[in-house]
Write a structure and sequence with these properties.
With 165 residues, the protein is α+β, with helices and mostly antiparallel strands. The protein has helices at residues 48-55, 83-88, 106-111, 123-136, 152-164, and strands at 8-19, 22-33, 63-69, 75-77. It has a 4-stranded antiparallel beta sheet with strand order 2-1-3-4, with helices on one face. A hairpin with a 2-residue loop joins β1 and β2. The longest helix is centred in the C-terminal third of the chain and has 14 residues, at 123-136. The protein is globular and about 45 Å long.
């Protein structure tokens, strides 16, 4: 695989994150090329979630840099100060512990907190869009189902659809 056929999409260089009494990440490098899928493996407390939280704007690295290539451009330093910044750059994260409201429907959970959500919601429109996305990406979920009714696997699908939506 070379740079011309599979360009780097995200590169984390020398990322270090410290918390009181512990170094969670110590000069970590991670390169993700377009079309690649990665898995981070390690024991509890190894720093996997911390590293991804730095990429997604939940934490700020104490050292190191994050670079991002957008729409065929050059690799550029990414200024990710918040989850909102990450989302604007097309970066999202499915958390290990889901961030869903059990008493609401799939559709309601997907649109919670979206920028530009109108005061009056057209849930039928949201449900139709979710159904189309569900079919397009082969992620079957009923947009009208309540989260408490779903299996853990189905809840994970909802989190993925939230990112795609």
């Amino acid at each position: 695989m070379n740079e011309s056929t599979h360009p780097i999409a995200v590169e984390m260089r020398g990322v270090t994150k410290r918390f009181p009494g512990v170094i969670a990440n110590d000069k970590v490098d991670l390169t993700v090329r377009v079309g690649e899928i990665h898995a981070l493996l390690g024991e509890n407390g190894a720093g996997k979630s911390t590293l991804m939280s730095a990429l997604c704007g939940l934490y700020q690295p104490d050292e190191g840099e994050i670079f991002l290539r957008q729409k065929g451009g050059e690799l550029q330093p990414a200024n990710i100060q918040s989850p909102s910044d990450a989302i604007d750059l097309g970066i999202g994260m499915v958390h290990q512990h889901f961030k869903l409201v059990a008493t609401q429907t799939v559709a309601e959970n997907v649109i919670i907190g979206l920028k530009g959500t109108p005061f009056r919601l057209n849930l039928k429109e949201v449900e139709a869009k979710l159904m189309a996305m569900s079919q397009r990406y082969d992620i079957p979920v009923d947009p009208k189902a309540y989260i408490w009714q779903l299996s853990v696997g189905e809840q994970q699908r909802v989190e993925i659809l939230k990112l795609l939506y």
